[in-house]
Design brief:
Blueprint (H helix, E strand, L loop, with lengths): L1 H5 L1 H26 L3 E7 H9 L5 H10 L4 E5 L3 H6 L4 E5 H6 L1 H6 L2 H10 L6 E5 L2 H13 L6 E6 L2 E6 L6 E10 L6 E10 L10 H9 L3 E5 L9 H14 L5 E3 L13 H10 L2 E5 L13 H7 L4 E6 L2 H4 L11 H13 L2 E6 L15 H16 L4 E2 L12 H22 L4 H21 L1 H34 L6 H27 L5 H4 L8 H23 L10 H8 L5 H19 L11 H13 L6 H19 L3 H23 L5 H41 L1
Length: 721
């Protein structure tokens, strides 16, 4: 490239940055290769609901799932809410509701009424009625051992008893707000209905009967502990540990998923120490948008204190459970696809599994055990093709990118940014060197003062700069071929030139992808404690850059300019340019296409792929080692070949449209590597497949376009004759 030859020092900086990025990428490859197992945890409560709709009991189903490889069973600790909704003789109610219930007040014993009258001072207290000694002592033990700092009053009866728990306004859960008219005519009164209390949801412990049932089926218990502020000091954690030892429960994973981590009211040290002493791996649950994780307060401190002994957990959310028979499949295929993508593409090490349900049905489970057997057997086979085996989940090494590597990459990005600057503005070489020096000094200062922010900025800058350099490469090479070749050059030669220029652009994009990924390849990004948030902007800026350079080069080619750089008269010319209606329409079409393109990046919008495209994705996913990105091989990569073709044929409007679409491909390659949770080998494989398929489709597109071009030229010739 001419600009590279004229700026060897800047090119050398880029090379230094690229070498540092390659070093980091190599280190990350090693980390990813050493973590290749996945495990399953079956949700007990949903398995019970499945059994109730089938011909077999829960013990039978637990044994069957264990035989499929799901020998770990997730069991939530009991709460007053869960006991009330179960068949157990337990009822927990707000005292304020009881006082409004005249029937209950008339039926209650004098001892209970006296306890409420003398103890319950406000509307936030909870009264528990236990109809058996077993439940009474189970609940009493929890409040004695875990929540002794709270005021609790007991009243034993002949069979069971009553427990009054003192709550406060911070514990209450509120419903709708109501307004009532005051009869004295002074206005309205606003009140909020109290519908419950956090007290209903605090953990009471594991029911021994459930634990014994799971263990008798040949499974192990993976307990789930939920914790809430003000009901969560170290006494809770001590009792949890004591009960696990008593019931012979040995957790393999501590799956996070509540408001705070257990023991949080007194800090996170107790939980960290317990996990370290018992070799328990932390499980962080990916949220429903597949972006970042559910993060209880204190979780990151615990992760740091355990030296990142952590794995990502994929919960089979309800919307995935319902995908039985989706997209025209006859059964479990799309649910299996969802699990496969989570494990292979998103660094998931534990699947928290919930049984399948009928399509869009929140109640009816799939009760054919063979469907589960086939699904897990097929999934295991597909995972084996990626070197992933089913077994105890293996946490990734707590790798951190060296600061020196980030700094060298930043220097490389500075070199690339200055090359982009020279492609637009006629900046004298001495000022380029001044800017280079200031940039290097500024980068050094940034990494000294705020290393994390500087690393993110470096990654973002690389994601913008390298596609811009790729755009300049494509533009320069296309202009070179336009100058060398006749307008009516044979189509096969144009196809060959298009392939070579496309390949060169992709090489630059891949280099940019590595420089983008390397600074944020630390463990905290691999498990998505932190994420790169500049994806959409990083994709938009190179498109804007291409519009600028296309205008400059196009004006230069028409002889309107003596230089290929931006001048004052260019701005004046743009401001005075007559806008045509067709230009407005084209702009609106491009804006709409751009919105869809950006909206479909990630999972935060409602703009989704159509079913046909999803089926194509699934086919490619099942057929190839890695699914290439559809926008790359169907649109963007062939568009670069069409751009070269249109430039030589002097089709200006088509050159602009195809060039703009081609830049999307360059940004997409970089975007593939921004998802640090995705293994690098998958990113390289995706890009390779996309390039191969893009070339094939590009050849077809160019040949089809050539037919229309020849017809147009023939008609134009006849009109002139």
């Amino acid at each position: 490239m001419k600009l590279i030859k004229e700026n060897k020092i800047l090119a050398a900086l880029m090379l230094v940055g690229l070498i540092a990025a390659v070093f980091v990428i190599g280190q990350r490859f090693v980390v990813e290769k050493n973590s290749r197992t996945v495990d399953y945890v079956l949700d007990y409560e949903e398995a019970v609901l499945l059994s109730e709709q089938s011909e077999h009991n829960i013990s039978w189903w637990l044994s069957e799932f264990a035989d499929m490889g799901l020998s770990k069973v997730g069991l939530h600790e009991e709460t007053l809410k869960s006991l009330t909704e179960s068949e157990k003789p337990v009822k927990a109610e707000m005292v304020t509701d009881l006082r409004k219930d005249s029937y209950w007040m008339n039926q209650a014993s004098s001892e209970v009424l006296e306890m409420i009258e003398t103890t319950a001072k406000d509307d936030y207290d909870v009264l528990v009625t236990a109809g058996s000694d077993e439940m009474y002592y189970f609940i009493k033990r929890a409040f004695d051992e875990r929540y002794s700092s709270h005021k609790v009053t007991y009243l034993k009866s002949e069979n069971g008893g009553f427990i009054l728990i003192d709550g406060n306004v911070e514990d209450s859960l509120h419903g709708d707000t109501h307004k009532s008219y005051l009869t004295d005519g002074t206005g309205f009164r606003q009140s909020t209905e109290i519908v419950g209390s956090i007290i209903m949801y605090v953990n009471l412990g594991l029911l021994p009967a459930k634990v014994e049932q799971i263990q008798a089926a040949g499974c192990s218990v993976e307990p789930r502990v939920l914790a809430y502020k003000n009901w969560n000091d170290t006494d809770v954690l001590k009792d949890v540990a004591a009960q696990y030892e008593e019931l012979n429960v040995k957790p393999g994973y501590w799956i996070m998923g509540s408001e705070v981590v257990p023991g949080y009211d007194d800090g996170t040290e107790a939980l960290s120490e317990y996990l370290n002493q018992n070799g328990i791996t932390i499980g962080i649950v990916e949220d429903t948008t597949q972006r970042q994780n559910i993060s209880p307060d204190g979780m990151e401190d615990v992760i740091n204190n355990t030296d990142y002994n952590v794995v990502r957990v994929f919960s089979v959310w309800p919307y995935i459970q319902y995908r039985y028979g989706y997209y025209g499949y006859d059964s479990y295929q799309e649910i299996e696809n969802s699990l496969f993508r989570a494990i292979v593409e998103r660094n998931i090490k534990v699947v928290y599994y919930k049984p399948m349900k009928e399509k869009d049905d929140s109640y009816t489970y799939i009760t054919d055990v063979n469907m589960y057997r086939e699904s897990f057997a097929n999934l295991e086979k597909r995972l084996a093709e990626h070197g992933i085996t089913v077994g105890e989940a293996s946490p990734s090494e707590p790798y951190q990118v060296p600061l020196w590597a980030k700094f060298l990459i930043a220097i490389g990005v500075i070199g690339g940014a200055l090359i982009c600057l020279k492609s637009v503005f006629a900046v004298r070489q001495k000022w380029i060197y001044v800017l280079m020096g200031l940039g290097i000094i500024g980068a050094a200062g940034a990494f000294f003062v705020a290393p994390n922010a500087a690393g993110l900025l470096t990654s973002f800058a690389a994601a913008v700069v390298m596609p811009c350099i790729g755009s300049v490469w494509i533009m320069n090479e296309a202009i070179k071929e336009k100058d060398r070749l006749d307008r009516d050059t044979g189509v096969l030669k144009l196809i060959l030139k298009g392939i070579l220029i496309l390949a060169g652009g992709i090489v630059i994009a891949v280099a940019g992808a590595m420089m983008t990924a390397a600074p944020i390849s630390s463990i905290n990004y691999m498990i998505e404690l932190d994420i790169f948030r500049g994806v959409k902007l990083a994709q938009l800026l190179p498109l804007a850059f291409f519009v600028v350079i296309f205008f400059l080069f196009a004006s230069y080619l028409r002889g309107q300019k003596k230089k290929q750089t931006l001048e004052i008269r260019d701005v004046r010319w743009i401001l005075n340019y007559d806008i045509k209606v067709w230009m407005i329409l084209l702009g609106l079409i491009l804006a709409a296409a751009g919105y869809v393109y950006l909206a479909r990046t990630g999972h935060e919008t409602n703009v989704e792929a159509v079913s046909l495209e999803l089926l194509l994705r699934n086919f490619l996913e099942e057929t190839l080692y890695a699914r290439p990105r559809t926008k790359e091989f169907i649109v963007a990569f062939p568009a670069i070949m069409l751009f070269v073709y249109s430039m030589v044929r002097n089709l200006r409007l088509f050159s602009f449209v195809f060039g703009l679409a081609g830049v999307i491909g360059l940004t997409s390659v970089v975007n593939t590597f921004m998802h640090i949770r995705t293994p690098l080998e998958l990113g390289f494989a995706r890009t390779g497949y996309a390039l191969i398929f893009g070339i094939i489709l590009g050849i077809i597109y160019v040949l089809v376009f050539e037919v229309f071009y020849r017809l147009y030229r023939k008609k134009e010739h006849c009109g002139n004759a």
